[in-house]
Design goal:
Layout: H1 3-19, H2 40-52, H3 56-59, E1 63-70, E2 78-89, E3 92-98, E4 107-114, H4 116-120, H5 124-127, E5 131-132, H6 134-138, H7 149-159, E6 163-168, E7 188-189, H8 201-211, H9 215-221
Helix pairs in contact: 1-7
Length: 266
């Protein structure tokens, strides 16, 4: 991790703490959690645990990202996702996913992010679980709320050509559904949006209004990252699976459809 990136992260963490309060909100689809209210004993234990126990793994979740996920096998299921991540090394990051950014948010998944180099080292049967990130970045969908653009852009540049493996383990609500009161059923593998028109416009509009950002302007500001984009595996997996008109994005190309000769990915 280069010096600029480390310095930027330190600055970003400070700025985010001071600015994120403006963006905090309740989950889009609030559901009443099953179970009794916390007892006095439980609350007392929590206070003691905060003072006496080690919270090193979660205290290192120092990067906050916000974006949108469709489910790979059910692309009509789309949701806004709040990622709390830690960059373990230059090629690998791990994130805990929530349905909001307040202390009452529900943990509903995990995501691992790897570089192109690590992705290429995976066996072909494993690669089908990893979604490409160039579309999310160039569309302006993936953002780091509270971070000034001068620091956010290098962060996104660093994630160009990367891949994510994302499992959602709790349907806490998506467009058209209030969600489940408890984590039910099997985990669902999430994917990425790789074309204009795939993500529901109301998801983007609601996020932009709440956080005071402009996704289209962010997209314009990131146009100069297109030259860094390499063809990625999985770009076309959801092509034609949305019941609406979609359009290709400049720089977002499926590896199997590119002119680059490579091993078959799937």
């Amino acid at each position: 991790m280069n010096l600029f990136y480390k310095t930027a992260c330190a600055l970003l963490t400070y700025l985010a703490i001071n600015q994120l309060a403006q963006a905090q909100e309740k989950p889009n689809h609030q559901v009443i959690l099953e179970g009794e209210a916390k007892s006095t004993q439980t609350k007392t234990l929590e206070v003691g645990a905060k003072i006496l126990q080690n919270h090193a793994p979660v205290s290192e979740l120092d990067i906050y990202l916000n974006g949108f996920h469709p489910m790979k096998d059910h692309p009509e299921l789309q949701m806004e996702t709040h990622h709390y991540c830690h960059q373990m090394n230059e090629d690998f990051a791990q994130c805990v996913l929530f349905d909001g950014n307040t202390k009452t948010a529900r943990m509903n998944g995990v995501e691992y992010i790897i570089s192109e180099k690590l992705f290429e080292s995976l066996p072909n049967e494993e690669k089908v679980y990893w979604h490409p990130h160039n579309g999310e970045i160039l569309l302006g969908q993936l953002v780091a709320p509270g971070i000034p653009a001068i620091a956010e852009k290098p962060l996104m540049k660093n994630k160009m050509n990367s891949y994510g493996k994302t499992w959602h383990v709790w349907n806490t609500g998506h467009e058209g559904s209030p969600g489940d009161k408890l984590p039910l059923g099997e985990p669902m593998l999430a994917w990425s949006f790789n074309r204009d028109g795939e993500v529901l416009t109301e998801l983007t509009a609601r996020r932009d209004k709440r956080m005071g950002i402009n996704t289209m302007q962010i997209r314009k500001d990131r146009a100069d990252l297109q030259h860094l984009a390499k063809p990625q595996a999985g770009v076309d997996f959801l092509k034609g699976k949305f019941n609406r008109l979609t359009q290709d994005i400049s720089g977002v190309v499926d590896k199997k459809n590119s002119n680059i000769t490579s091993k078959k990915q799937f």
